[in-house]
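#lab-general

N.A. 3:47 PM
ok so I finally got the sequence cleaned up, no stray characters, all 120 residues accounted for. can someone with queue access submit it? mine expired

B.Y. 3:52 PM
send it over

N.A. 3:53 PM
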Amino acid sequence: MTISGSSTLGIKTVLHPVSDLAAAKAVYVALLGVAPQTDESYYVGFEAEGQHIGLVPGGGPQGMTSPVAYWHVSDIEAKLAEVTAAGATVKEPAHDVGGGRLVATVTDPDGNVLGLIQDR
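B.Y. 4:20 PM
back already:
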């Protein structure tokens, strides 16, 4: 199957909901071998080997219950239209999370959550 005009750049971000941020942070520091790049009470983020790994206490405002992989795309609205036309359902519409970064989530036909990110 050939996809023309695909704007997907790949998975570069995975967010994990955690119940105990301090305990999770210790595990991820040991696993990744790096200190967090962002270390706040609402989010801890690591950059390791070209990947961004984020820890979200309590699943954050989006209510995450399992890890979510985020596909980096060049045009989030076009990709949302493409995946919803193919059968996905918008869970969280595209919105700015700061610095011009747009994020959205969709669910596939089995209820799996897929994330999309568009950077400026």
